[in-house]
Amino acid sequence: MIYSLTETKMYSMQTERNEIVNYGKKLITSNLTTGSGGNLSIINRETGLVAVSPSGIEYLDMQPEDVVVVDLQGRVKEGSCTPSSELSAHLGLYRIREDIGAVLHTHSVYATTIACLHWDLPAVHYLVGFAGTKVPLAPYATYGSEELADNVCTTIGLSNAVLLANHGLIAVGKDLKTAFVIAEEIELVARIYYQARAVGEPVILPDEEMERVIAKFTTYGQTRSGE
Ligand SMILES: [Zn+2]
Q1: What is d(CA 105, CA 218) in angstroms, rounded to the nearest whole number?
Q2: Residue 208 CA to chain centroid, in angstroms?
Q3: Which residue of 118, 136, 159, 189 shows the fewest CB atoms closer than 10 Å?
């Protein structure tokens, strides 16, 4: 970690840097990941620049200066740390989906458990609607590889979350707060699915019902927008 408290340099994307540090800490306190596992990024669509968490720095130690700024081709524009190992997946998602403003990757335990079984996460509970009618599973590839980034981008479709086989979860949203909430809710649904499968055969909600739920979520979000 190369930064100095006496450094006078002004950094760009200060708001995004602060958000990444804050939500990185929330990943730990919400038990969505441990240590430096997982990663987060935010894109500024006007400049095309992406602020991304650095590789290998524990979230509780991370400072705004450690956040790395890259362009959509992955070239480092600012920062002395190495960007997250899953940068290619983040950038790929920003390139294929204009609606995505932030990407969050976790190794949250129950979502990862489902991903290790190579299952999709079906609509066992209506809260899966935060992602879509289900959470699809991206085939396994080595972490940090272009192949994994390709698998994520070809699997996600219009979903707001995707499971990574034998690895974890990626959630996307218009901003980091939204992506974080999606990751939390999907972790809850994954836990419910795991528990239900442990004792019986859970009833899965049909796609038509999930479409109704997703439409209701849109209205719900609008009524809460003044908060
Ligand atoms: Zn990972």
Answers
A1: 24
A2: 26
A3: 118
Q: How far is the CA of 220 from the centre of ligand 1 (A)?
A: 31
**Two tokens at 121?**
């996460």
pLDDT band at 219; cut points 50, 70, 90: confident
Q: List, in sequence order, every beta strand (DSSP E) within the chain.
A: 39-44, 49-52, 68-71, 76-78, 102-106, 137-138, 161-164, 168-173
Between the CA of 209 and the centroid of ligand 1 the distance, in Å, is 32
Structure tokens, 101 = 């403003």
What average pLDDT does the chain have? 93
Q: Starting at the earlier edge strand, list the strands of the sheet with 137-138.
A: 76-78, 68-71, 49-52, 39-44, 102-106, 168-173, 161-164, 137-138
For residue 115, what are its two tokens?
Answer: 């991903």
| Residue 174 and residue 101 in contact, taking contact as beta carbons nearer than 8 Å | yes
Mean pLDDT of 90-113: 97
Alpha-carbon distance of 148 to 173, in angstroms, equals: 20
- Selecting among 16, 19, 86, 187, the annotated active-site residue is 86
